[in-house]
Amino acid sequence: MITLSRRPGGSIMYFGLLVLTLLAVPAAAAAGENPLPASQARGHALARSVCASCHAVETKGASPNAKAPPFRDLAGRHVPLTLQRRLADIAETGHYDMPPINLHADEVQDVVAYINSLEPPAAAR
């Protein structure tokens, strides 16, 4: 039984902490639904919608197109600015069998943020 008392250190403080904790649980659960920061989450969504028909964009699995490297293999291969330039060029002009894609500079940054959030292969470390 919780008793409310106004004494310093009394159970009112315990009750207040309990209420704050219970209020924080739904917010923490919602945050757990998408653990990626906003730019990485946007990049992941773009990768899934624009790139996944050829590239493996998740942390596991093979690319549908054997010539297209999985995004996790790109993680750590380039410094972010170099990867950003490279993806911007590819978005504009295409690359080998890859056609040009219509991505804004901000979207390229988001895809780079997502790629760099992936764990690079052990050999690249």
TrEMBL record:
It comes from the Bacteria. Keywords: Heme, Iron, Metal-binding, Signal. Residues 1-31 form the signal peptide. This is C-type cytochrome. It comes from Phenylobacterium ferrooxidans. The keyword Metal-binding applies. InterPro entries: Cyt_c-like_dom (IPR009056), Cyt_c-like_dom_sf (IPR036909). Residues 38-119 form the Cytochrome c domain.
